């Protein structure tokens, strides 16, 4: 009689484990759905237009980009602009 009780309890554990996995999966999906509602994604077009407008404004202002860091003297990349930090020494180039 002990074997019958043990076998009837085994299927309850298996079904309970499967139900637990399903509930946890649904809870995680619900949490991520809630986070998407609270924190909306920024449109990718806006970031491209901002960077393009910054490039145009820098080109129109007539400021030349520095070619060497005033602090460490190392050559800076061509895309470097005034007011950024030197990638080598970390000082702000103004």
Verbal overview:
There is one protein chain. By secondary structure, the chain is mostly helical. The relative contact order is 0.07. The mean pLDDT is 76. It contains two helices and no strands. The protein is 59% helix and 0% strand. It is rod-shaped, with a radius of gyration of 30 Å.
List the helices and strands and how they pair.
Layout: H1 2-38, H2 44-61
Q: Helicity level, as a percent range?
A: 55-70%
Counting helices, strands and paired strands, the structural category is mainly alpha
Q: Span from first to last CA?
A: 87 Å
What is the average per-residue confidence, as pLDDT, rounded to a whole number?
A: 76
What labels would you give this structure?
0% strand; mainly alpha; 94 residues; single chain; 2 helices
Concise structural overview:
The chain is mostly helical. It has two helices and no strands.
